[in-house]
Amino acid sequence: MTQFIKDAQWRYATKKFDATKKISAEDLNTIKEAIRLTSSSYGLQPYKVFIIENPELRAQLQTACWGQSQIVDASHLLVFANMTQFGDAEIDSYIQNLSQTRNIPIESVQGYADFMKSKITPLSNDVKATWTSKQTYLALANLMNVAAELKIDVTPMEGFEPEKVNEILGLTELNLNASLIATIGYRHEEDATQHYAKVRKSNEELFITL
Q1: From the centroid of its chain, how far is CA 102?
Q2: Whole-number mean pLDDT of the chain?
Q3: What is the rounded radius of gyration, in angstroms, for the C-alpha atoms of the chain?
Q4: Are the beta carbons of 14 and 153 closer than 8 angstroms?
Q5: How far apart are CA 80 and CA 156, in angstroms?
Q6: For 182-201, what is each residue's pLDDT tens digit?
Q7: What is the DSSP string of 56-81?
């Protein structure tokens, strides 16, 4: 059994965090780097990740997250916010970064830029928002996997009111939308769910080989 599988068996959606335990700066930097290195469509990373530490702000967010205790008790709260408008300017910014990172002239990748624009720019804003929102799930997966390796607990959440989160964080004005929330920290010893057997479909039910 690989360490990855052991980590996957260890993790669970933590229901009660130990509010006295905080993630170290070193581990938080590792988590941030894992998120930063996440693959995304065309490599565009069409989202922002807000790391909420301010307790007053987290108390406000709790009201928009069905009153869930993890919002205020976990060491850190992460909000994955997808870009609601994505077009030529964002693609040009990526191409500029690509050119500088690889030390190549922009002209040599102009064809790639034009190809992306031909596929993305014509899409409606609703389709673009759905696409950018999906990308946040890839980043969440990397967060969950690296956290499990570090023995840091994660609770991924869709149980919140995006409009209220957007209002509290001022996301709409930034052309962003709260897509996902994740609380990270350390499980409380009183959280009984950590002892529950993991319930998943069998291989026979889940996989279809053609």
Answers
A1: 26
A2: 97
A3: 19
A4: yes
A5: 11
A6: 999 999 999 999 999 999 99
A7: HHHHHHHHHTTT-THHHHSSEEEEEE
